[in-house]
Design brief:
Blueprint (H helix, E strand, L loop, with lengths): L6 E5 L36 H38 L3 H6 L12 H41 L9 H9 L8 H11 L8 H12 L7 H42 L5 H11 L7 H33 L2 E4 L5 E5 L5 E7 L4 E8 L7 H21 L4 E5 L18 E3 L11
Length: 418
C-alpha cells in the first residue's frame, strides 16, 4: 500500500430493518437500534478467521436478541401509556417489568427477560382490554337507560334487561341486551377516543329503535363499529410502538437535539395523535443520522482497538490519524474513517531514508488483515474495494507532526457475548 492510493475498506456492518427500518453495530446506552443481518467477509484467513467467524456469529446472535429487547421496551412504553388512560390501569402498570438496557448482559439473560416481559405484557394487555370493555359497557348501558327516561345503573346485560322491562317504550329485551354486552366486550384496549365515540353513538341509536327488530339491526351496526375500531387499534398500536422506539433512540443517543420531534413522537406513543407520514419520515431520517454517526464511531473505535493490540500508536488531535509503531523510524500509516463508513489508509515516510517502503507496506497489509478479522468478531464486516500492492510506488514523504503518540487500547463500548 504505497503512494497516495489508499486501501479502502467498506465497513458493511450488520445493519437491517428493526421495527423502524434502521439498525446499528452499536448498543450505545443500550438503546441504539440493534444488529439483525450480516454480509459475507469475502475472504477466508486460516487460523484467526476461524476464531473470528465463531465470535462474529455470537455477536450477531446477541444483536438479534438485543433488538428484541429494544422492541419490547417500546411495547412497554405504549402499554404503560394505555394503562394511564383507563381507570384501574395503574394497578396493571405496576405489574409491568422495567425497560431493560441490553448493554452488559449476555444473550441468555436477554432471552430470559424477553420471555418474562412477554408473559407480563400479555397479562396486562388482557386486563386492560377487560377494564376498557367493562367501562364502555357501563357507559353504553347508562346512555340507553337515560335515553329511554329510566333511572338506575346496569353493569350487566341482566341488570339492563331488568331496568328496560319496566320501561314501556324500551325496544330492547334480554336477548338484545346480552348481544350488545358480548359485542362491547370485544372492544380492544388501544382503541382511539374517536372510535369510542362512534361506538357509543351507534349504541345510543339502539334505544331509538321503533321495536325489537330494528333494535337488533342497530346492534349489528354497533358490532360493525367495534370491528372497525379493532382494526384501527392494531394499526395505531403498531405506529405507537414504532414511535416509541424512535423516541427512545433519539432521547438516549442524541439527547436534547430533537425537541419538537420528540414531542410529536411522545403524542403518538401516548395515543393522543396519529402518526402522520411527515413525522414518520422526519423521525426515521433523524434516527438514520444517529445510527450513521454511532456506526462511524464504533468502526473507528473497533479499528483503533484492534490495531492497538497489534502494536500501533496514534497521534491525537488530527482528523486524519497517523499511526506509529515501535521500530518504525522512517515510516507511519495515515488513516481516516470517512463519513461514508470507509477506512482509507496508506504507508507514508516520516523521514528520508532507504528503500524499505515495500517491507513496511507488507507489514501494514498483514496487520490490517488481522485487524479486519478482529473487526468481524466485533460485528463489523469489511470488504477491500481497492488495494495497491506493496512496493508499487514509493511512499510519499509526510509533513512532520508535533503530537505525541498515544498507545491504542482495546476500549469497547459495544457489548459482546461471552
Amino acid at each position: 500500500m504505497s503512494g497516495e492510493v489508499f486501501v479502502i475498506a467498506a465497513l458493511a456492518g450488520a445493519g437491517a430493518a428493526v421495527a423502524v427500518g434502521f439498525a446499528s453495530r452499536t448498543a450505545i446506552a443500550g438503546t441504539t437500534l440493534a444488529l439483525e443481518g450480516v454480509s459475507a467477509l469475502g475472504e477466508h484467513m486460516n487460523g484467526v478467521v476461524a476464531r473470528a467467524e465463531e465470535a462474529h456469529k455470537q455477536a450477531c446472535a446477541w444483536g438479534a436478541v438485543a433488538s428484541g429487547v429494544l422492541d419490547r421496551n417500546a411495547r412497554l412504553a405504549v402499554l404503560a401509556q394505555a394503562c394511564a388512560r383507563i381507570p384501574g390501569g395503574e394497578r396493571l402498570a405496576a405489574e409491568l417489568p422495567e425497560p431493560l438496557a441490553p448493554s452488559g448482559r449476555t444473550a441468555e439473560e436477554l432471552l430470559r427477560w424477553c420471555a418474562e416481559a412477554d408473559d407480563r405484557m400479555a397479562r396486562a394487555d388482557a386486563g386492560l382490554a377487560g377494564l376498557n370493555a367493562a367501562a364502555m359497557t357501563r357507559t353504553v348501558f347508562d346512555d340507553l337507560i337515560q335515553a329511554l327516561g329510566g333511572t338506575g345503573r346496569a353493569d350487566s346485560a341482566a341488570e339492563l334487561a331488568a331496568l328496560l322491562a319496566d320501561l314501556p317504550e324500551a325496544p330492547a329485551d334480554q336477548e338484545i341486551a346480552e348481544t350488545l354486552e358480548r359485542v362491547l366486550k370485544r372492544i380492544p384496549a388501544h382503541v382511539s377516543a374517536d372510535d369510542l365515540r362512534a361506538i357509543r353513538d351507534a349504541a345510543r341509536r339502539v334505544g331509538e329503535a321503533a321495536g325489537p327488530a330494528e333494535a337488533r339491526t342497530r346492534v349489528v351496526d354497533v358490532r360493525h363499529r367495534v370491528q372497525l375500531a379493532s382494526l384501527a387499534a392494531v394499526s395505531r398500536r403498531t405506529d405507537a410502538v414504532e414511535a416509541a422506539r424512535l423516541l427512545h433512540a433519539l432521547q438516549l443517543d442524541a439527547p436534547g437535539e430533537h425537541g419538537a420531534l420528540e414531542a410529536g413522537l411522545a403524542e403518538v406513543v401516548a395515543g393522543r395523535a396519529a402518526f402522520p407520514p411527515a413525522l414518520r419520515a422526519e423521525a426515521r431520517a433523524a434516527c438514520a443520522a444517529v445510527v450513521a454517526a454511532a456506526d462511524r464511531a464504533h468502526v473507528r473505535e473497533s479499528l483503533l482497538g484492534a490495531l492497538g493490540d497489534l502494536g500501533y500508536q496514534v497521534e491525537e488531535g488530527f482528523e486524519t490519524l497517523r499511526l506509529a509503531k515501535q521500530g518504525w523510524d522512517q515510516h507511519a500509516v495515515q488513516l481516516v474513517v470517512t463519513d461514508a463508513g470507509q477506512v482509507r489508509s496508506a504507508v507514508v515516510r516520516t523521514a528520508a531514508g532507504g528503500d524499505a517502503d515495500a517491507a513496511r507496506e507488507r507489514e501494514w497489509c498483514d496487520a490490517f488483515d488481522q485487524a479486519r478479522a478482529r473487526l468481524r468478531a466485533d460485528g463489523v464486516d469489511t470488504e477491500v474495494e481497492h488495494l495497491l500492492p506493496p512496493g508499487t510506488r514509493p511512499a510519499p514523504l509526510a509533513r512532520p507532526r508535533g503530537a505525541r503518540p498515544r498507545r491504542l487500547t482495546q476500549a469497547r463500548h459495544r457489548e459482546r457475548p461471552d
